[in-house]
Fold:
Amino acid sequence: MKAGEDQLVQRIAKALASKSRARLALGIGDDAALLVPRAGCATVLTCDWFLEGSHFLRDKHPPDSIGWKCLARAVSDVAAMGAEPTHFLLSLAVPGTLTGPWLDRFLRGLARAARRFDCQLAGGDTTRSDKILINVTVVGEVRSGRAVLRSGAKPGDLIYVTGRLGEAEFGLRSFRRGRNASHRNSLSVRKHLYPEPRLAIGRWVAAKRIATSMMDLSDGLSSDLPRLCAASRVGARIVADRLPKAKTPVEKHLKDLDLIELALNGGDDYELLFTVRPSQARRLPPAFRGIPLSCIGEITRERRVLLVWPGGREETLSARGWDPFRHRN
Amino acid sequence: MKAGEDQLVQRIAKALASKSRARLALGIGDDAALLVPRAGCATVLTCDWFLEGSHFLRDKHPPDSIGWKCLARAVSDVAAMGAEPTHFLLSLAVPGTLTGPWLDRFLRGLARAARRFDCQLAGGDTTRSDKILINVTVVGEVRSGRAVLRSGAKPGDLIYVTGRLGEAEFGLRSFRRGRNASHRNSLSVRKHLYPEPRLAIGRWVAAKRIATSMMDLSDGLSSDLPRLCAASRVGARIVADRLPKAKTPVEKHLKDLDLIELALNGGDDYELLFTVRPSQARRLPPAFRGIPLSCIGEITRERRVLLVWPGGREETLSARGWDPFRHRN
Structure:
């Protein structure tokens, strides 16, 4: 008799078992999970698709990176509120042929991410399908009134980003070309496979009331910055020269322009984009725990998003980041 | 230029707009939703796949029934805890060709369900895929200590079910055979297309502390009752004659045995299965707001699940309900 759904759920529960049961009154195995909310906190809730063919390739991507990244992506949305993740639900649909070693490796990557982000499996749903389908719901918490929204930016605020932009896209391109395992160890390929949501920075700028608005960069700056501006009913002017570009090996001979294009339009970075009142800017160090914090421009009253090239030429920034309804992989 | 993801999200938000913003501090349009938990309540959390090919057929099922049912299925898990749904997340992946009239009809069914279950859209994720993929996360609340778990059944407890079992499976079979729209109006076909989670009964048996254990019947009694027994570390003896079978039109000429088989193994009923101490049984009416409440047997110390046939023959109940890893549609 083939292993059924119940056996699969037991394997998932075992692989993700956690010593801590903090505020999880009831986990996997009942109709629903029961969480105990922390007094004085709002509940943060988000979910994210991670689909074979659109977001990863079954034959190319290591299963443990699929496990890591499906959680990291959703946790990044929680980081972007200045909140802490606490629990997650895993919805997993896989072909029957992948319920052996593939699943074990997937679950190892997921378990490693769950420990790193201090986010506990609370439940989910498992079924069979021809393609690998993943949906992750993450629950988090943030002190009431301290969440940082997209809508709080004001004209004159300075615009910051964490880390280096376009690095994950550069990593994806290297990964696609790569024929041997050594490629997987380059910084940019690791960023593509195992992104690190900026939880600590997000919490810090929220707790210290440094950021007036914030979001994470998942589709690319040229798509995401206009979303923050639209939510805040403002515009922005960013400076090409100030973009923190990917560091690339010398032998790649990439032109500077290509690196700016990657920084503007590359997706999957999971860095944070946030705005700061000028009077607060002195509180920001040049880096936070080794992650650069770069001022790339400022918020404007006029509701356009402009890019300033070296020499002073200005152009309207076009959304050229990732949009599933406009792209084909 | 094609409509992108942002336009799609705006259409979904508009179709699901609600006058009430009860305890939703921040809805669609930011990185995550912010909910305000109610003091003295636990947060209930569940999610459910609803996939083309496995759970519905694109060419057969009316889009509004797909919208209704994807939410109803997940809400049923909340009903099974004795809890109230409050918010949900919609993860929707569709082919680009279905973002027109199909999506409008889908959203109408979903909006109707959201109003009926008093459950508000708080967020989600939208992307493109070849097949229609749906995942719904429902958040609910229940007074601390009042949730009814699967694990509370004790030997001697009486076993109850709501409604009639096998009706949705009977409806599915009629629906598959049906060539005209009149089929859609039969009670059983409507139950297949537009199931009604038993929220009021679930809340009532939880609030009055009548039920010692509870779960919803989604895969079929023969698969689900053993799960409740395993969680409670008990067995059960149920009586074939007492099963509330589907009412069928006279002209169908179905044998009684077939109706018992449907009641045991038919999935998708979304009725409640719960256990009651014998001393509490007198508090249960024969029906609750028109929905029959039937005692079908009792919990036993011996950890087997037995079915008693007319005449007294006993057999071990085999799990023949729905299991995605053992069935092919």
Remarks:
- The mean pLDDT of chain A is 92.
- Chain A touches chain B through 71 residues (CB under 8 Å).
- The helical segments of chain A are 5-15, 63-79, 101-117, 167-177, 187-193, 199-207, 221-232, 256-265.
